[in-house]
Amino acid sequence: MSQQLTGQVLIVGTGLVGTSVGLALSASGVEVRLRDRDSGAVRVAAERGAGSAEPTSDPACVVVAVPPVQVAAVVRTVLAEFRSATVTDVSSVKREPLSTLAASVDGDSLSRYVGGHPMAGSELSGPWAATAELFQGRAWAVTPHAGSSPAAVEVVTALATSTGAVAVTMTPDEHDVAVARVSHLPHLLSVLAAAQLGGAPAEHLALSGQGLRDVTRIAAGDPTLWGQILTANATAVRELLRGVRADVDELLAGLGDDSSDRVGDVLQRAVAGTRRIPAKHGGPARAEAVVVVALPDRPGELARLFGDAGQSGVNVEDLRIDHDPGRPVGLVELVVQAPAADTLVDALVARGWSAHR
Amino acid sequence: MSQQLTGQVLIVGTGLVGTSVGLALSASGVEVRLRDRDSGAVRVAAERGAGSAEPTSDPACVVVAVPPVQVAAVVRTVLAEFRSATVTDVSSVKREPLSTLAASVDGDSLSRYVGGHPMAGSELSGPWAATAELFQGRAWAVTPHAGSSPAAVEVVTALATSTGAVAVTMTPDEHDVAVARVSHLPHLLSVLAAAQLGGAPAEHLALSGQGLRDVTRIAAGDPTLWGQILTANATAVRELLRGVRADVDELLAGLGDDSSDRVGDVLQRAVAGTRRIPAKHGGPARAEAVVVVALPDRPGELARLFGDAGQSGVNVEDLRIDHDPGRPVGLVELVVQAPAADTLVDALVARGWSAHR
Predict the structure, then answer these.
(1) What is the pLDDT of residue A34?
(2) Do B125 and B185 belong to one domain?
(3) CB contact under 8 A, A215 and B220
(4) In this structure, are residues A205 and B276 in contact, taking their beta carbons and an 8 Å threshold?
(5) Confidence tier at B287 by pLDDT (50, 70, 90)
(6) Over the stretch A35-69, which tens digit does the pLDDT of each residue have?
(7) CB neighbours of A157 closer than 8 A, spacing ≥ 6?
(8) Helices in chain A by DSSP H: which ranges?
């Protein structure tokens, strides 16, 4: 199964994801060709080292990295154009394009198609935002259909692995159910929180805090793209949304009845749910610790802080600045491996920082 | 109205918020006394400079900073103990404690009570996490009741202003409606997203990304505290939750009917809602820009990045590390004032960083 990817790879669509695939494959020695109907996007992708814009006649594998509504049509076109190539795509819904293809492509051609979906992206877009490292350590769903040839599945698995991702094989149906829960439904709940803000007087919104900003961040995403995704995965999303409606009813009933613990039960289930989110693919949640440091809000202070942290030898794995531009001192939360936290606190305090766990 | 705060202030409850109030007031020259039934917490607060632990007999103002369910009882006690003091609290719901007080305190005493609620906090707790700057530039809701004396309202307004906060006066009812929308409802939507994770096989959760983590972050908060808050504000939360249920029904109907634009309408309302969230109190949303930098995941690289950024003279206002420990290079997003973004990109690229807007 850990077959090497051999032969030329053609990437159709040189946006963020397509260009990142090209960068990652090129870095691992694969010969990559690029195609996009936007010649400027191809040029940028090629200049960044994602591959060559020269035509190709016999790619071993074609990666279709176009917007969701175009996927089926482009896959059909390249299956016909390259009669021996394995064809995959990177779109976030898998069942709908497959059923469109199954209705319009012969079985022999369709056996060369295996869907894919790398679980990585960005709020940014375009070839400029691409990086060779986008897929490192991320899951890449590989979704064979019943008629996919084992050889094609091996090629797409090798493709995913070659980018540094971890291939996770599941059926198209299972994939769509999974992303409905971990991506599409959370998007809708963010949307539902943001959608209620319209009815408020501006002075009520003056009371907004960080929690509101975090919950509603993804609700600012492109409504056209999200409309396409949600429509394409409507069945799985509706089923989960019915579960949400049942929980809303549970909360409404519980909030009207102090003697029950129905609200507490939902809150407890949510805490348990947050603990199920893995820290990274395949790994257990890691023991991390947070070190809090007070930081004057002026140029150079972050540099001084990280210089001092770097001297301690402790690797800072994540951080957050408690963001309030109106405040002359911020709180910086540094996430480090738990055993290293005391070392970091001691080192920072010794250098005059106000730091604690 | 911009009266100075004069006389001694007693803070009852030296947790995160109480101690931060003490630090802020002490820094602005106010004489602060501290009280907490946990003598260790008082000692820490006093050692940090939040005030003195000595007894007081005649405070001008008492700030009650205790858990929500204890607020009414403690306010009643201090109104009786200090017969000329103005008394306020800092809890996140205002109507319920007031109605409890109104039923058990004479009108003369009650005229000295004015509720308050600083819109600042942290997932951290305790006096160690307190900072003098917690309230700088934040809104502080001041919520007089019909019987509050004008003098008491002036004292509480001066208290809020003395901490660096911006006093926002509204009735207790209006406050509870406002925080239901900008705090309690978003918490519940985060909870609803997290609560659906329990039903998923672990391999589905392997597809989790950053959006899920952001939406569900606050759902990990203490269920006991949140149960108290939601129960105390049940009426306002239920009304908004009914609006959410109506939107859920709208989404369910729209997802079953491709010919309608009901889903798109909700998505558009959400985008508009996110734009209503102010960047800071009273100010317009600021023009910021994001600069993206690729960062090797090893000690010292953040220091080098911020050193180089600092040399450019551009102030980094916020940042986020795209967090994936399995990846040797991360993406750092630096938030800066929009006009400064190109300067920063040029400076970083000149020093060998892969950086772009």
Answers:
(1) 98
(2) no
(3) no
(4) yes
(5) low
(6) 999 988 898 899 889 999 999 999 999 999 998 88
(7) A1, A3, A142, A167, A169
(8) 16-27, 39-47, 71-81, 95-102, 107-110, 150-162, 172-179, 185-195, 202-205, 210-216, 223-232, 234-255, 262-275, 301-311, 341-350
Give the one of A141, A203, A313 whose C-beta lies nearest to B168's C-beta: A203
Residues A29 and A127 in one domain: yes
In 10 A of CB B323, how many CB atoms? Answer: 16
B326 confidence band (pLDDT: 50, 70, 90):
very low
Q: Which residues, in sequence order, are bridge partners of residue B330?
A: B295
Could you give the number of structural domains in chain B? Answer: 3
The interface pTM score, or ipTM, of the predicted complex is 0.75
**Local confidence band at B129 (pLDDT 50, 70, 90 cut-offs):** confident
- Supply angle C-alpha B270, B273, B275, rounded to 5: 120
**B249, B275, B301 — which closes off a domain?**
B275
Of A170, A185, A208, which residue sits at a domain end?
Answer: A170
Contacts of A124 in chain B (CB under 8 A): 290, 292
One domain, residues B180 and B165: no
Measure B131 CA to nearest chain A CA, in Å: 8
A220–B274 CB contact, under 8 Å: yes
Cα nearest neighbour of B293 on chain A: A129
CB interface of A with B, residues 281-300, below 8 Å: 281-283, 286, 290, 292, 294, 297-300
Is residue A2 domain-resident?
no
Tens of pLDDT, residue by residue over B183-205, are 999 999 999 999 999 989 988 99
The CA distance from B355 to A304, in Å, is: 21
Spatial distance between the Cα atoms of A58 and A159, rounded to a whole number of angstroms: 17
Domain that holds residue A68: 9-170
What was the pLDDT predicted at B190?
97
Residues 6+ apart with CB under 8 A from B134: B16, B17, B20, B24, B118, B120, B121, B122, B163
